[in-house]
Write a structure and sequence with these properties.
By secondary structure, this protein is mostly beta strands. The chain folds into 2 domains: 33 residues; 49 residues, N-terminal domain of TfIIb (Single Sheet), CATH 2.20.25. It has a 4-stranded antiparallel beta sheet, with no helix packed on it. A 4-stranded antiparallel beta sheet has the order 5-6-7-8, with no helix packed on it. The chain is elongated. The chain starts with a strand and ends with a strand. The mean pLDDT is 78.
Length: 104
């Protein structure tokens, strides 16, 4: 891979030159035999997680507002600005109802 000296973007090989995909800057390329140029991209396998139990989330004692179960998976996520506290999300271990708690 080559990166543009002007803007830092990825460059592509065209004949004996490298051309920037962003700003169009061109620079001479070295011997073409030193590079392997491919057009294909690898497909990556995506694994979908079916349930909260499969995610490996920790559990805690709390009451589900939907089914009154006393256990839930939990995780923290920053959804507001960085100077505010994280939001706690819960997923019921029985019915998988989701709710959240914010610090106010």
């Amino acid at each position: 891979m080559e990166f543009c000296d002007e803007c830092g973007s990825l460059m592509i090989r065209e004949d004996d030159f490298w051309r920037c995909t962003s700003c169009g800057h061109e620079q001479p390329g070295e011997d073409a035999s030193a590079y392997v140029v491919t057009e294909e991209r690898e497909e990556r396998e995506i694994t979908e997680i079916e349930s909260a139990a499969d995610r490996g989330l920790p559990t805690t004692s709390t009451r589900c507002p939907d089914c009154e179960n006393d256990r839930a998976y939990w995780y923290l996520q920053q959804i507001r600005s960085a100077d505010e506290s994280e939001t706690r999300f819960f997923i019921c271990t029985k019915c998988e109802y989701r709710w959240r708690e914010d610090d106010h």
